[in-house]
Every structure is written in C-alpha cells, then in structure tokens.
Design brief:
Blueprint lengths: L13 E3 L3 E13 L3 E12 L5 E6 L4 E4 L4 E4 L5 E2 L2 E3 L8 E3 L4 E10 L10 E12 L5 E14 L3 E2 L11 H10 L5
Parallel strand pairs: 2-13, 4-8
Antiparallel strand pairs: 1-2, 2-3, 3-10, 4-9, 4-11, 5-6, 5-11, 6-10, 7-10, 11-12
C-alpha cells in the first residue's frame, strides 16, 4: 500500500483540506471597549492542487470555543479580511490561488461582556467554499470545507492586557509594581 505524504508536514496548526492547506500563523487577543474579548486568527492558505482555486468564507461561520466552554462569534462587519465571503445569494471570488501559491487572510471573533479573559486555549472552526466562475460569469459554490483547529494558544495580547489564567498572583504583583501600581 502507498501512503500519501502529509501536505502539512506534521505542523500542529495546519489543516489539510485536499486541494489546499490552511495554517494558523498567529492568534492575537485584545479587549474592545474594556469588556469585549476579541480574537484574531491570522492564517496562510496554500493551493496544493494542480488547478487554480477560488476560496471564500461562508457567512457567519468563523467561531471559537475557549477551554472554559465560552463561545466566540463573528465580529459584526469585521469577520474576515483578505478573503471574500459567500452569503445565500452572493459570492466574492477575490481569493484566488494559482497552483502552489500561498496567500494570507484573517478571521476575527469576539465574546461580548467577557472582561479580562481567563482561557488558556481555543478551538477555532471556519467553513470555506470553493467557488467556480461559470461561462455566464455567474459564481457558484462547488464544495464546502469545514476547518477545525483545536487547542490553539494566543500568540500575542494587544493593548497590554494579559489573560488572567496565565499569570500567578506573584506574577500579577510584579507586573503591577513594574507599571507603578502596588498590589
């Protein structure tokens, strides 16, 4: 029997979807308005097929679940950058990959009124659609892919905030002293 080579080459944050691979490059975390926790998943997609490939994210599909069971949904108006979106009647074919080509896109999700996050890891799920442009210039969805990235940790917190679960009480006191606040 012949075994097929792993296009992800064993990378932990990589998902092989057949004609393409998707790899989480970085996860950034921030607080919006001091109370909404925002996660941004920066990803690289590579066409591993011999054909051009058009991908778009399925509307409202990006979600994350933290290790505490909290759900993060799509951030209104900012769910994806760098890739088109498909809705029930419309599809944006802007994300085209030639064979072997790589491109980046980012997906943003948030949890309302969450305060300082305590989660240590996240599972990120997103659905992508492979699009085809017909001779009539209509766009149709050919196939849908469900991508799953379990046990991801934040690469970077923006705005100086830190997940509370990552610091011991002594560490929090030390940061307070460094910032000029005595705890």
């Amino acid at each position: 029997t012949t075994t097929e080579a792993d296009p992800c080459a064993g990378a932990a944050r990589c998902f092989s979807a057949g004609p393409f691979i998707a790899e989480v490059q970085q996860i950034s975390s921030s607080l919006s308005g001091g109370r909404h926790h925002v996660l941004r998943f920066h990803m690289r997609f590579r066409n591993v097929s011999a054909q051009p490939l058009i991908l778009a994210v399925t509307y409202n599909s990006p979600i994350a679940i933290d290790n505490n069971g909290n759900r993060y949904g799509v951030t209104p108006g900012q769910a994806v950058s760098g890739m088109g979106v498909t809705t029930g009647r419309n599809a944006d074919p802007q994300f085209t990959l030639a064979p072997g080509e790589s491109r980046n896109a980012a997906f943003q999700v948030y949890r309302r009124n969450s305060g300082n996050p305590t989660a240590l890891s996240y599972t990120f799920d997103v659905s992508l659609e492979q699009l085809e442009i017909l001779p009539s210039r209509q766009i149709r969805s050919v196939r849908q892919f469900s991508l799953n990235f379990p046990d991801l940790t934040v690469s970077r917190m923006q705005g100086g905030a830190q997940p509370a679960g990552n610091l011991s009480e002594a560490g929090k006191k030390l940061i307070g002293i460094i910032r000029g606040k005595k705890k």
